[in-house]
């Protein structure tokens, strides 16, 4: 198996000089998102207000179905907000906004294209020809895949494919990089290597990063701040000493998910998983997502929020 590379300091410096900015300021103003016809719509997000600073790495966590991916799509202009607005550097986000780029859990590479030409699909129109080829070559080097430039996706591993996906997203030099569970399909060891690679890439290309994850530990390792997304009903259940939502009076809870809490991680990276601050925040975040009872009972709570919608028994 090919491991994710460590980017040399000299290369990091060169790549940093290749950028004129350190990411965009992302602001969400009372953002809401609903689906369906008027009068029968389903509210997924409501009243989301936040500011993400240039070059910041923000993790978005929450239970399955809590609207995390919907929020990411709204941030990238892939879906219009029903209410409110999203801006980058004070300018409203447009459909498929060129200032942002998205990488998904699946690499979504075109199987008939080489790795180099898959990455080239992310280039802006103005960066074709010699400039485009040089940029693709630099990105292949950055993610440690120069020798695989002419390979097809079927000839590489899942971790390598995800590195190509990241390189393609970076090809346009976005101000904002949006990642939707980018490492969720990878094995544990490859995932850890990808964490290191993402931080190296962020040093080389210091854009603003927002990533969705089910893994609390992943959020604590990578992020500057963690946004917890959920509904009032879910938050009420999480605080309910083991009672399910059906046993509680949540009639006053509003429909749709919002930001339940924001945690800032002051500890510098790389972070120790055994530090008191790491363990404290991990416990609090899992508790906020309704899995604290398992941990308190002495059972391994894990770091994932995949089952956070299941009532504690």
TrEMBL record:
Protein name: ABC transporter ATP-binding protein
GO molecular function, one term: ATP binding
SUPFAM superfamilies documented for this protein: P-loop containing nucleoside triphosphate hydrolases
Keyword Nucleotide-binding in record: yes
Organism of origin: Pseudoclavibacter endophyticus
Disordered: annotated segments: 1-21
InterPro entries per UniProt: AAA+_ATPase, ABC_transporter-like_ATP-bd, ABC_transporter-like_CS, ABC_transporter_ATP-bind, P-loop_NTPase
One Pfam family recorded for the sequence: ABC_tran
UniProt cross-references to SMART domains, sorted A to Z: AAA
Keyword field: ATP-binding, Nucleotide-binding, Transport
Domain ABC transporter span(s) in chain numbering: 26-256
């Amino acid at each position: 198996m090919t491991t994710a590379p460590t980017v040399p300091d000299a290369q990091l410096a060169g790549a940093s000089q290749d950028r004129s900015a350190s990411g965009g300021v992302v602001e969400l103003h009372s953002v809401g998102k609903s689906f369906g016809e008027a009068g029968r719509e389903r509210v997924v997000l409501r009243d989301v207000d936040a500011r993400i600073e240039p070059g910041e790495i923000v993790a978005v966590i929450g239970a399955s179905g809590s609207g995390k991916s919907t929020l990411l799509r709204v941030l990238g202009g892939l879906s219009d907000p029903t209410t409110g607005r999203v801006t980058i550097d004070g300018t409203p986000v447009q459909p498929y906004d060129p200032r942002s780029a998205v990488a998904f859990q699946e690499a979504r590479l075109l199987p008939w294209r080489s790795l180099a030409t898959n990455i080239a699909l992310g280039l802006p129109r103005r960066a074709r020809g010699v400039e485009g080829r040089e940029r693709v070559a630099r990105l292949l080097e950055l993610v440690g895949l120069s020798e695989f430039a002419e390979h097809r996706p079927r000839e590489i591993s899942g971790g390598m494919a995800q590195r190509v996906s990241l390189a393609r997203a970076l090809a346009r030099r976005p101000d904002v990089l949006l990642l939707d569970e980018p490492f969720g399909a990878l094995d544990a060891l490859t995932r850890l290597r990808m964490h290191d690679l993402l931080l190296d890439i962020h040093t080389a290309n210091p854009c603003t990063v927002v990533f969705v994850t089910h893994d609390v530990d992943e959020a604590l390792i990578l992020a500057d701040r963690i946004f917890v997304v959920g509904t009032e009903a879910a938050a009420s259940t999480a605080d309910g000493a083991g009672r399910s939502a059906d046993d509680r009076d949540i009639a006053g809870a509003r429909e749709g998910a919002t930001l339940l809490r924001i945690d800032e991680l002051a500890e510098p990276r790389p972070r120790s998983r055994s530090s008191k601050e790491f363990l404290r925040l991990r416990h609090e975040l899992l508790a906020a997502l309704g899995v604290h009872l398992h941990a308190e009972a002495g059972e391994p709570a894990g770091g994932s929020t995949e089952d956070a919608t299941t009532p504690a028994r």
